[in-house]
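Pipeline run #58 for the internal structure catalog. This entry was flagged by the ingest filter as a single-chain record with no existing model, so it goes straight to prediction. Upstream metadata was stripped on purpose; only the residue string is passed forward. Reviewer on rotation: M.T. Logging verbosity set to normal.
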Amino acid sequence: MTYLLYLAIVVPLTVWVGRALRRHGEVFLVDVFGGDERLARSVNQLLVTGFYLLNFGFLSNFMASKADVETGRALMEVLSAKVGGVALVVGVIHLANVWSLNAFRRRAVQRAQITQPPMAWAPPATPDPTRP
C-alpha cells in the first residue's frame, strides 16, 4: 500500500514539474541562446528528457523501504521522508542546472559586449547665439 501511495504522489508531481519546466524553460533558454528559438527548443527537449530519466530513476531507486508500516502515522512518516527526499534532490539538481545556464548566458552577454565597437563620443553641442 505504501508503494502505491508513494507512486500516486511522485509520478503526477514529476510529470507536472516536467511540463512546467518544458513550458517555462524555453523562454529562459531563448534568452540564453541569444534568440535562437530552434536551438532553445532543442536544448529544452533534451533537458526535459534528462529530467524525466534522472527523476524516474531516482524515484525507482529511492522507493525501497525497510520500515514496517503498521499505522497511519508510520505511513505518513515514510511517505513524507521519501517524497521530501526526492523533492529536495531534484530541486537541488534543478537549481544547479539553472545556475549553470545563467552563467553561460552571462558569459555570452559579456562576449557580445566586448565584440561590439565602442560608441563614438561627441561633445555636447554648444548653443548657437544667432538662433533664438
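catalog note: Residues 3 and 64 are 8 Å apart (CA to CA).
catalog note: The radius of gyration is 25 Å.
status: ready for reviewer M.T.
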